[in-house]
Amino acid sequence: MAILDLEGIEKRFGGLKVIDGVTLEVDDGEILAVVGPNGAGKSTILKLIVGLEQPTRGSIRFQGRDITHLPTHRVRHLGIAMVEQTPRPFPTMTVLENVAVGALFGSPDTRTGEEAALAAGEEMLAFVGLADRRDDHIDNLNLHEQRFLELARALAGRPRLLLLDEVMAGLNESELRSSIDLVRTIRDELGITVIWIEHVMGAVVELAERVVVLDFGRIIADGTPHTVMRDPHVIEAYLGAAEGIVDA
Amino acid sequence: MTDRFSQASGTSAVGGVERRSTRSWSGVAWPTLGVGAILALVPLWLGDSRVMMGIAVLGLAFAAYTIAFNLIFGSTGQLFLCVGALAGIGGYGGAILADVVGLPIVVSIALSTSAAALAGGLLSWVAVRRSLGVIFTGIVTLIFALTFENLLLGLGELTGGESGFLMEAGRGTFLRSQIPPYYLMLGMVLLTLFVYGSLRRSRFGWAFRALRDDEVAAELAGIDVARYRIFAATIGAAILGLAGALLAFTEGRVSPTTFGFAEVDVVVLVMLAFGGIGSFLGPILGALTFTVIDELLVEVGQLRVFIYGALVIALFLWLPRGVVPALDDLLRRRRAGS
After folding, report:
1. Which chain A residues touch B if contact means CB-CB below 8 Å?
2. Are A90 and B221 in contact (CB under 8 A)?
3. What is the dihedral of CA A81, A199, A228, A16, to 10 degrees?
4. Domain that includes residue A194, residue range
């Protein structure tokens, strides 16, 4: 069953068509990777889903409900959380407080108290492996840890769908390993559907069940990682990178 | 979702909420009562002088202004440069309703306070709707403030124009006596402080901190940034209107300078910057300190404005975050060190 439905999405910035008629169904419980060259419109798609941008045309349905023009916080309350490429922690809060905000406001339930939110925050910090950093200030976290912090904040509201924007860029080998494992656990243990933008092809092939390739705002391929990577359109879009992709 | 998570946070929710709420009550109530106890002694010291008591009442009005401005600007990042104008809606509104329309004083105050709240809420709504940044919100509200001042001059028959007017309502009652108005004003300030403190310690406080840190991240975390902004502006404007109305009835006269931009907004900005933007007791400390400094500087005449300016520059150079946050840091470091 489709949890998310994009239909004929088009987005223009002035005269520039960034998204050019994207139609996409995301199944409940799948890990979907979105890949494509720089400027293909990957991040824009995520921003359109959570309402940070408004589509020029087309509609977005989540669990059968039209969310096309809902404000971002409403989309979050319905169960879609996003982790952006550049972490945006709250600088005046501790690590735990950052995550507690997600638990306090991330669901439509306004009765969540502070203690309950902090408890939920600790659960999520333990889940992403930052439990011992709870009282740290965010300046003391490296990029990798900040992304995990954002992930914990996103999960604290118990979303049904998680959007990840290049969260593995710039990580070293062992950080990459733990990130891949964590995303898999999020889907397997928490049952959360994941849409995930990625540049690291090795990670895509290992983790994703389905890959969508975006180029100039259009979907040029959609399938399992291995079939997609052999698609001549995809190889053309990536040009010189083609051999590396096939090897992966 | 696994049971692990729902159980863990589910059980702590029951006992936790109650424990927290008692803690927040005492955390706000004690400082408020402490401030009240100290300020309640002021008439013992200055009570003999009608002039000094007038200044003390004005100082309390400014304390309320600064707390309200801190709620609007410090907590939700909306630069409202119409503090005087919103207080003026309360002051002039109350005066005109009581004197010209002939409504009872309490009703006049309630209506003019509501009018100020409505104006503040509308200004915030416009700023939020048009997604105006800090600077543009400042410009729009400044224009509102200047328009208000011109309206007072233009409607001279109703407002008394440049010289304002003396009010009939309240004459001969305790409102014009020497000491009771001080306690009326003090009660209002303490109520304001308590409301502000309680907001800070509730969900609102969390939302305020998050949206001030990063608006987009706050929205992504599920916070309705627009709603919290408009709410803060409405409550803040209500406080301004109430303080302005009480000031009008206790002084027995209103004039454009009572609520002018230079006389109110500039001073409130300095008071808040001194005390510490966003802190709980900073605004009231800033307001009272500058009321005293202002009074001490009367003796030096023309030099007063110069010294005032020098103080402000020194303040921004050495205490950019304000006195209360700086003291807070110092205490925390002491404790961590020992």
Report:
1. 50, 52, 71-74, 76-77, 81-82, 84, 88-93, 100-107, 110, 112-117, 119-120, 123, 153-154, 157-158, 189-191
2. no
3. 80
4. 2-79+160-247
CA distance B10 to chain A (A): 7
By C-alpha distance, the chain A residue nearest B3 is A190
Same domain, A64 and A172: yes
Q: Provide the mean pLDDT of chain A.
A: 90
Tens-binned pLDDT, residue by residue, of chain B (338 aa): 343 444 333 333 333 333 344 455 678 888 899 999 999 999 988 888 888 999 999 999 999 999 999 999 999 999 999 999 999 999 999 999 999 999 999 999 999 999 999 999 999 999 998 888 889 999 999 999 999 999 999 999 899 888 899 998 888 888 888 899 999 999 999 999 999 999 988 899 999 999 999 999 999 999 999 999 999 999 999 999 999 999 999 999 999 999 999 889 989 998 998 898 888 999 999 999 989 988 888 888 778 778 878 887 888 788 878 888 888 888 888 877 65
CB contact under 8 A, A115 and B17: yes
User: Which residues of chain B does A123 touch, with a Cβ-Cβ cutoff of 8 Å?
Assistant: 4-5, 8-9
Q: How many CB pairs under 8 A join A and B?
A: 115
- Domain identity same for A109 and A19: no
Task: Specify the CATH number for the domain of residue A229.
Answer: 3.40.50.300
Same domain, A242 and A173: yes
Nearest-CA neighbor of A244 among A230, A216, A233? A230
For an interface test with B, which of A52, A82, A114 has the most B Cβ atoms less than 10 Å from its Cβ? A114
Cβ <8 Å between A190 and B217: no
Contacts of A154 in chain B (CB under 8 A): 220
Reported as type and span, the H/E element at residue B276 is none
This complex has an ipTM of 0.91
Closest chain B residue by Cα to residue A117? B9
Q: Are residues A116 and A194 in the same domain?
A: no
Answer yes or no: do A215 and A176 share one domain. yes
Is B283 part of any domain?
no
Q: Which of A135, A158, A181 is the last residue of a domain?
A: A158
Residues A124 and A74 in one domain: no
A142 shares a domain with A19: no
